[in-house]
Protein 1
Amino acid sequence: MQSNDEPAIGGSGGMGVEFRHLLDGSPVANYICDAEGRLTYFNKAAIELWGRTPILGKEYWCGSWKILYEDGTPMPLEDTPISRVLKKGVEEEKSEIRIECPNGAYKYLLVFPKPLFDRNGKLEGVHCTLVDITEQKRDHIKKETLSAIVQSSDDAIISKNLQGVIASWNRGAQEIFGYSEDETVGRSITMLIPEERLNEEDVILDKIKRGIKIDHFETIRKHKSGRDIPVSITVSPVKDSGGNIVGASKVARDITARIESQAAMKKYIRNLETLNTVGKSISENLNVEGILQRVTDATTSLTGAAFGAFFYNNSDDKGSTFQLFTLSGAPREIFDHMAMPRHTDLFLPTFRDRKVVRIDDVTKHGDFGKNAPYKGMPKGHFSVVSYLAIPVISKNGAVIGGLLYGHPEAGKFTAEHELLVINIAAQAAVSLDNSKLFEQVKSLSEKKDEFIALASHELKTPLTTIKGYLQVLSKKKADKVSQLFLDKSLCQVDKLNTLVEDLLNMSRIESGQLNFNLEVFDIREMLKEIVETFSYSSQSHRVTGTLWNDSVIIEGDKQRIEQAILNLMTNAIKYSPKADEIFVDLEVVGENMVVKVRDMGIGLTEEQRRQLFTRFYRAEDTQGISGLGLGLYLTKQIIDRHGGSIEVASEYGMGSEFSLILPLAVQKLKKVKAI
Ligand code: ADP
């Protein structure tokens, strides 16, 4: 081992002392081998380079720990430059090798081997100089790699000076912008910028000069062909070794695909939203025309058609005619003087065979122009080149009609449009089926209402006559039995009269003909009389009235309000067959009066309470108690129309309390004044 003080320099290599001193002090690695290749000298710089101190006279050819070819494969000793020179005795050009040091570091060296001859010209050994070129080599590799990366990048990587003149142009730039390197280097970057965006370059250069990087700026640049390309660009300042900004590097990425996919996504979402809203609105709509207009409008806009229409299928045994029902995108007058589409080869597949027909250019369709009377498109008809027809099929398989779309340009309708309309047509068909049912039910119900109005009206006249005769008879002297029967008959006629009157009132309400005669009156007086009358007439129940100790003035139709209260009291008695008392209270609460009618009867379940005010509703446990289920419906209508409300509190099996709430007349007057 060499000591640290004494550099690990070994041997004389057969040199003169002066020459040796020269080499010892040299910063360049030198070593010498004898004619057999044995190491006879190396200097301090060589030790540093090898990262080790070889053993003089024992090691051959070189002091490196491992010698490699440039690509990293091991180099056999006999192939080292020195052994070659020794073998041939001829000087060699410098050569490049790679070595590995014991600490694992790699180095690149230039080797200059020189044969040494004695005075007689006999080969004595080799003197070798090693130059460490690792730094340069790495720089070179780095540059080559960078350049390869730049060249292989799909992004455009362009450098330019501060005047915007292009200095370099990679393969990606060529791909994106269509220009070759020769066509761009030396020219201004503005050649890529659309005219209306030229000011962008000034802004970019201004920022670059101030050392500011521009990150992912999305804009439009021009292709050689003139086509616009959406790009995302990043521009960074380029500095020289002194740190001065001398130019800019620009990376531009073509974002056409992204923009297109975003647009497609947006379109997809918009379509979904439309589908959703159309679906919802047609399922909520029970009117045929409303459904079809909504469907026609939405699908015409979705398909981008110039016009869209729904034709109703009027097929019968004699043939098919199609009747225009709804239209979108064109005035209806166009069709006014035109015959409706007929069973031509173009329409029949849709209306008869339930087929979707999509044609890019209908004028090239085999059947086009052959059918009389128009032989093609009728005069005045807007031009239809793209054609799309989709059947709307009912649940029972019948074609309700067809949705037809047209556009004056060819190839306007896609498979996507077709699918969208098919979906909507299917939803529309369900709604149309439902609406048919609804309309049937509605017309039945209207017929029923008409019948009730007519029947009750017709019943009213004979009833009044019968009551008149009975009253005349009851005034005549008669035996006890006859008198009893007369009284009972009168009582039944009264009941019948009330029922008929209820039916009539219901019809009036339904047809909006229930009129009120408004007057201001004291409801306390009215209630007093009612309670009195009931106390006399009711044989089964006692009526207890607790009335407000002052007059309670309201404004309303006296007769109808009385009818409402009588309904509640009659019910209280009817539906408490096992009890013998009902209660009537009148009080003033704030700006309202409240009439409460309470019984201890059969009571109501929550479900029954919910349905109480629907017409003809009767709870399931009312068998044996007569009624039509109209009293509460009428009561509520009357109270509602007086600006009041009705509340029910009840416990099943325990009794019920109905409260009528009406505004006091003062309040009403105040409100009128305020208005
Ligand atoms: P009607 O008495 O002719 O059946 P209403 O419209 O007056 O018709 O009442 C509707 C239904 O409400 C009754 O059939 C009955 O089931 C229930 N109802 C009304 N009042 C009471 C009450 N006080 N207690 C229990 N159930 C009642």
Protein 2
Amino acid sequence: MIQDLNSQQPLVSDIKTTWYSVLKKLNKEYGNEIYNSWLKNLKVKMLENETLVFSVPSKFIRDWITAHYVDKIIFYIEEENSNIKRVKIIVDAMLVADQGSVNNDIFIEKNRKSKAVSYTQQSDDWPLDERFTFEKFVVGHPNELAYASAKRMAQPEKFDFNPLFIYGGVGLGKTHLMHSIAWEIKNHNENAKVLYLSAERFMFQFIKSLRQKDTMSFKQKFRSVDVLIIDDIQFMMGKSSTQEEFFHTFNSLLDLNKKVIISSDRAPSDLDSFDDRIKSRLSWGLVADILPANFELRHEILKKKAHELSLKYENKINIAEDVVVFLAKTIANNVRELEGALNKVVTFANLMNRAIDVELAQTVLKDLLRSSNRRITIDEIQSKVANYFNIKVEDIMSAKRIRSFARPRQIAMYLSKKLTSRSLPEIGRKFGGRDHTTVIHAVKKVEQLKTESNKFDEDINVLTQIVTSS
Ligand code: ADP
Ligand code: MG
């Protein structure tokens, strides 16, 4: 049975309401940028049995959404409406160029000291972060090279390297440094044309210009800037024409002696989906890495943030040194988590009207500590599950459908979903290149079997113990 959403059935409004709530959640989760670039393209078409069908204007958008956002979409849809079990995204060329031109790049037009920063062609509330400046960046051994080269790049005089490529793990300060460069250049010269955008945004703009057959203005726009800053280039993958265009833009800016700054979560040579030419060109200038913060740096950052917080609270709070040390020791993952932890502790103390001591910090951070204790990998799960059922890891990965392999495979998929933060498509890929729907099916199957059989439920509990405990 197919229910067309354009017909007058009562279901229509239900589904639109569902989708509206889901969109709101997605927007909240991913922010305006991703929402506008990708998610907004999804148009509800119809409900086909238990499958909600969407259309998008291009294959690329479909693939991108499928690779990055589809499990969250399914998750939220199920949360809103349990009658919908699956989604399907189809490409509908009729949707091309439906919403006029959206232009959300940041052209910083004014000195940041004037509160009213204005943006040309700005239609979204998406400014550079005012807190991300060099003054607020704490320098230590793990990030000193990146900091020094970012500083250098922000100087008005001629530069001695170009491009600057900054790489490092998440939450280590890449975006902070890039925004700092943009602010500082603007401070030196109000008229400098600085363009900062994420690689996702760059791709989206390019694809859009292709769709609208207007690549000329795209080229013009990007090639007329003085400084181009592209964040998270690792997301510009699997699409050779975009990479090609990026490469041209990039080359022509370098030829014109314009500054180019790029960040990534990995070194240029590890950008696997990039053409060798591009990889080598990216490392022509200066490549600076940011290493995970060591204890000293974490300690310094916390001291600075604690100081800022106490200013904010007009010296009404006092974060004792032993609390700072405790946090710096316990939260080793990244600076973002470190900041989050400190804020959480302060908020809680304020709310409960309690002094900020180590005991309070311990209580507040229990959750955070548990999750940052150890990262479980899919490989680990596969080998432990194989071991438990006395089969080989290859059998878990294989296409063999006999029950004695298929069941452990489903269990391993289920545990991967429950115990890691990998997405459904990623899990599918790790299991011999299977589709994300196979993973969803496995998770559902295991959940069902758990309720049907005590023995099975017991198996899952024991396996969860095995996987999480070592
Ligand atoms: P990335 O882009 O590398 O994922 P961000 O630049 O977004 O990381 O940094 C995450 C958070 O940590 C931001 O709030 C940033 O201000 C803060 N941060 C990271 N490194 C430092 C540092 N060295 N000094 C002060 N704050 C930092
Ligand atoms: Mg970042």
Protein 3
Amino acid sequence: MSADSYQPKRLLVTGGAGFIGSNFVHYLIESTDVEVVVLDALTYAGNLANLAPVAEHPRYAFVHADIRDKAKMIEVMRTHRIDAVAHLAAESHVDRSITGPAVFVETNVLGTLNLLQAARETGVQRFLQVGTDEVYGSLGPTGRFSETTPLDPHSPYSASKAAADHLVSAFWHTYEFPTLITRCSNNYGPYQFPEKMIPLMINNARQDKPLPVYGDGLNVRDWLYVHDHCSALWGVLTRGRPGSVYNIGGDSERTNVEVVREILRLVGKPERLITFVADRPGHDRRYAIDASKIASELGWRPTVTFEEGLARTVAWYRDHADWLEQIVSGEYQKYYEQMYGQRGAAR
Ligand code: NAD
Ligand code: TDX
């Protein structure tokens, strides 16, 4: 059974200018009464255009800050009288972690520790760590990850996320600091940066460029439409049992090549654009989520089928060609430059 409902008043959303973070902020403004303070360093993955629809809302504020700066985290939590944290800020792309792992440890591990310490010091009542199913490693053709599956991360990205989860869990066990951890499968939907597989393939298909499928294309991911993830995060934050882990999944396993074929069909482009390229080093073969705990404890289930969600996503990218073009051209950084001058640490 779930604990009594907890209603945060002022929620700090780290990484709120990224893909899932910005969708979550839209959800919070539309569907809850909570005041939202977004904290984001605006790395290459952060884009203020993602937050433009809520920029003038009275329950929204934005703070430009880096979670690697602990003193700043304490200051922000005090100044904004934060009572709950939803922690989504991260370096999130597996391929980047293979070529440059250090920043993944700095942001995902040390940044999470800074936030935990700052939150504890300033009396925060709930800390939600937004985690990934990749911490469980790779599955063969059968089986699913449950919350008790041992962590066995394979990439520098997933290793850094697993380390962060362990720290979060340690704060619960050592200090009884009220933490929650979610572990979600692959998200897709509006505002996803076009380095990730689905928006990259949509973008290439639209431009008649080759669609680079790693290895044999038979790796399997479980896909969840991002809006369903957002409702799950709110459910866990407000009704989850402190100290618990909740898996979140879409019950939509697909091979990569199946996904790419469906994108080509929706965009109306030929399958000859599919190009098999060298495999990702250490490429996990299959992820699959057992999400029965969140279903039975919190009554959450995905509501959007993969076919419906992918069609909506392709339509969103078609209708927001300017958003995509500003990223591809680097023009999106103008928001950052207008507000803060030249981007020092652009990657
Ligand atoms: P994203 O890369 O789109 O966004 C990350 C955001 O964090 C960006 O706005 C970026 O500017 C910000 N950020 C990065 N480093 C920072 C720092 N040092 N200080 C402050 N802000 C910083 O990522 P996403 O796909 O939206 O993922 C959000 C979270 O969800 C991550 O923790 C990720 O591990 C997790 N997750 C993602 C997926 C997925 O499929 N995308 C699935 C499960 C879990
Ligand atoms: O060009 C590509 N070609 C390709 O075949 C890319 C970018 C990916 N792929 C494959 C690799 C994966 O099997 O597609 C699959 C999905 O790749 P990504 O979109 O990079 O996602 P993944 O590596 O599965 O990780 C994602 O889901 C879990 C997010 O990036 C993580 O942040 C999240 O934790």
Protein 4
Amino acid sequence: MKFLVINGPNLNLLGLREPDIYGRQDFRALEDFIRESCRAEGIEVELFQSNHEGAIVDAIQGAYGRIDGIVINPAAYTHTSVAILDALKAVQLPAVEVHISDVSRRESFRQISYAGLACIKRYIGLGFEGYRQAILFLKDYLEGNENV
Ligand code: DQA
């Protein structure tokens, strides 16, 4: 089983950016956490981060035929990008949306998620743990576990 984990704009600045919202751990710590979460489950993982919408669309398209499931934190593009939504719909891979912060308790413009319309599940406000939950959910889903 192979997953693609996508992180969108400004997540590369974790640790520096708004630590009261996103925490003090840096992006490298997040990547290590995701790699370890997958390794523990025997899942192969590819990590992709970009600040560019089109690059994220390319990464989703490139997953087709190669990847079993996608975990995606589209960051600010969550709330704006029809292109990312369309790419997720096009490849038809099971995808899970993750946000480090609890977007439901933040500004009104963060209440809409385009990418989420193509996702089977979302984890918000759990910090790094949300990525692990997404990985576990996707694994269960792909294994056809009844209780997901
Ligand atoms: C975020 C929430 C988004 O609203 C924001 O633009 C981000 C990060 C999160 O992980 O909490 O960049 O996706």
